[in-house]
Design goal:
heterodimer, A: alpha/beta, D-Maltodextrin-Binding Protein, domain 2, ten-stranded mixed beta sheet, 14 helices, B: mainly alpha, MetI-like fold, 2 strands, globular, transmembrane (chain B), MetI-like_sf (chain B), transport (chain B), membrane (chain B)
Chain lengths: 354, 285
């Protein structure tokens, strides 16, 4: 859900200027919701026209608000048997919350052959095994540095703990968007399993608290951190791989590194409201989006990492490196922010940012 | 209209208009906030109407007591500094020509048009290591290496004062400009020195305005949630930052509402105390 903030980050937003306001409502249009701003504009421009041409299904583009407000709106509307959007792109925590309340329609896999292209972590099922969602877009959060302050790229997340980097680091301010618990667990505790219990979470937080003297800024605003990174004011931190690459390609002294332990792979998924009357068309759309060539197009045009395996796509090495990496990613443990969200948030405020 | 004979030019029922607006845009939202603060938080969704004090109970912790203390001390400091600078400034301003006064007031008013984001970014650049004032000090030989003055408590208070200062001046200006210069002259004739006349005559006779300016800046800065994020360290985050976190990122509206009500009650209590104190001393004098 932070992705819509991309809008603020200058050049990436340049594309939005050309946003077409076509694809307006018709009675038969499939309503597709994406995060308002950069994503919506990119989809309006690069995806929906071609989808309509290929399938004959018109699309009405809906901009979703940030946070979990959209989930709440879908829930309230579904009670009145309304669907403000048929298909929605949802952040994972919100998707799981919807899954728990059985808000998502069950999807028919036999009508969506391309979904088989997706890896397991992008196939979302109810407990009875029925499909309720698929991966839509994904992006990496990596270790970023200013190339003038750091001649050599760091190779490990452990750089955050290095006392030589005192007061030099910028990290995201929330447990649920920084995924620093997962990063710490993977770097020092052999993986994210330890986050399954409260004792484990506290143990990881204790380790993470050691970075506090090195952290100059716990940022919420992408623009603020990116500016500080580019000027060298805060020469190290965690940031989005795509935006960092874009800044570097414009001559800014920044670099994005996939650490040995892996970078964080965050994502949004497609789900269909159970109140939707257009399940068939929604399935055609989700199937269309799971095609390798569409994923490759998203990588080229929007800067997201492909949700399908790389060898299925025709991305060149350079194109692939701009959005992804072959290294095993760190997958966020989204469930813990659903099951223990308030508790983690409180501990985080007291022990990490407090 | 002609049926009712009124002594004022405006008909009485006109008073219903502001009353209705106040109801609609202040009391109703406040009542909703009160109701939400006792609603049941549903972690996997939103909230359900109900009556429970869980959100208030969660606030009763050492951690939030600390956050509340940070909020209050930051705003009190900013208010004190603003008034301490704005009062002599305004007295000085009132003695200038009308033209200069208008010019200065227009410039001050234009500051109010700047958004907090712009002020925050401008100050963080001004106080930065790479492009900031530290370089000037280094060039002047005052410090060995250019250094950063942000994020820090100093940067945060500076930002809040920048925003609060015009308000303080605007509250102080009308009474200061109406102050009869003969009062000061009388004090000087009776043998009071300049500073003595300032502190013994001007300050006491404008106590109400000073307290008013202090309260306004205090309340105004108490609600600031952007500057603490842009200019402060995480230990300087005010309660308003935590309220934003809960409302926007954790979708925990009951807790956010409960914290807001706490903040409001404490602010009201302090404002009440301040105006009481001002009145008592006034009566004793």
């Amino acid at each position: 859900m932070n992705r819509r903030d991309l809008l603020k980050t200058g050049a990436a937003g340049a594309m939005i200027l050309a946003a077409p306001s076509v694809l307006r409502a018709q009675d038969t249009a499939l309503k597709v919701g994406t995060y308002g701003g950069y994503f919506q504009d990119s989809f309006d421009k690069h995806i929906y026209p071609d989808f309509t041409a290929a399938s004959g299904i018109n699309v009405e583009s809906i901009g979703e608000p940030t946070g979990e407000a959209w989930l709440v709106q879908l829930q309230q509307a579904a009670r009145a048997r309304q669907a403000p959007a048929d298909v929605s792109m949802m952040a994972q925590v919100a998707r799981i919350k919807g899954e728990r309340s059985e808000l998502w329609a069950k999807l028919d896999e036999s009508k969506m052959p391309n979904v088989a292209n997706l890896p397991d972590h992008f196939i979302h099922r109810y407990e009875d095994g029925s499909l309720n969602g698929t991966g839509a877009v994904s992006w990496y959060i990596t270790l970023v540095t200013n190339t003038e302050s750091f001649a050599e790229a760091p190779t490990s997340w452990q750089a955050f703990w290095d006392s030589a980097n005192a007061d030099k680091i910028g990290l995201m301010s929330l447990a649920s968007n920084s995924f620093l618990l997962e990063i710490t667990a993977t770097t020092f505790f052999d993986g994210t399993e330890i986050l399954g219990t409260e004792e484990g979470v506290l143990q990881v937080m204790e380790k993470l608290a050691e970075v506090k003297p090195n952290v100059r800024l716990w940022w919420r605003d992408e623009g603020q951190f990116q500016q500080a990174l580019e000027t060298g004011e805060i020469p190290m931190g965690q940031y989005y791989h795509d935006v960092t690459g874009l800044a570097a390609s414009q001559g800014k002294p920044v670099r994005s590194t996939f650490p040995d332990e892996g970078a964080v792979l965050d994502s949004g998924s497609w789900v269909v409201s159970k109140a939707s009357q257009m399940l068939d068309q929604a399935q055609v759309f989700i199937d269309y989006m799971a095609q390798p060539e569409i994923q490759a197009k998203l990588s080229r045009m929007v800067g997201t990492a492909p949700t399908v395996a790389r060898d299925l796509t025709d991305l060149t090495d350079e194109e692939f490196a701009a959005v992804s990496s072959e290294k095993t990613p760190i997958l966020p443990k989204y469930e813990i922010y659903v099951d223990r969200g308030d508790w983690i948030n409180q501990q985080w405020s007291e022990k990490i940012t407090g | 209209m002609s049926a009712t004979v009124t002594e004022t030019s405006a008909p009485r029922w006109l008073g219903l208009w502001p009353a209705a607006m106040l109801m609609l845009f202040f009391l109703v939202p406040f009542a909703i906030m009160l109701a939400v603060s006792v609603a049941h938080r549903d972690q996997s969704g939103f909230y359900e109407w109900g009556f429970e004090l869980d959100s208030y109970a969660r606030f009763m912790s050492g951690f939030f007591a600390k956050v509340m203390a940070v909020s209050l001390s930051v705003s009190l400091s900013a208010a004190a500094i603003c008034v301490a600078i704005a009062f002599p400034f305004t007295v000085f301003l009132a003695q200038m020509s009308n033209r200069t006064q208008t010019l200065v007031l227009v410039v001050l008013l234009s500051v109010l048009a700047l958004s907090e984001v712009i002020i925050g970014f401008a100050l963080s650049t001004l106080l930065s290591q790479t492009a900031g004032i530290g370089n000037l000090f280094h060039w002047l030989g005052l410090i060995a290496e250019p250094q950063a003055y942000t994020p820090s408590l100093f940067a945060l208070i500076t930002g809040l004062c920048y925003i609060g200062f015009p308000f303080a001046v605007l509250v102080l200006y009308p009474p200061v400009s109406r102050l009869d210069p003969e009062i000061v002259e009388a004090a000087r004739v009776m043998g009071a020195s300049g500073p003595r006349a300032f502190f013994g005559v001007i300050v006491p006779s404008l106590r109400g305005a000073i307290v008013g300016a202090f309260i306004l800046v205090f309340v105004f800065t108490l609600g600031s949630y952007l500057l603490p994020q842009l200019l402060g360290r995480s230990e300087d985050w005010t309660l308003s930052v935590h309220i934003t976190d809960q409302a926007v990122y954790q979708s925990n509206l009951p807790f956010a509402a409960a914290m807001s009500i706490f903040l409001m009650l404490v602010a009201l209590a302090l404002v009440g105390l301040a105006s009481l104190a001002g009145r008592d001393r006034g009566a004793a004098a």
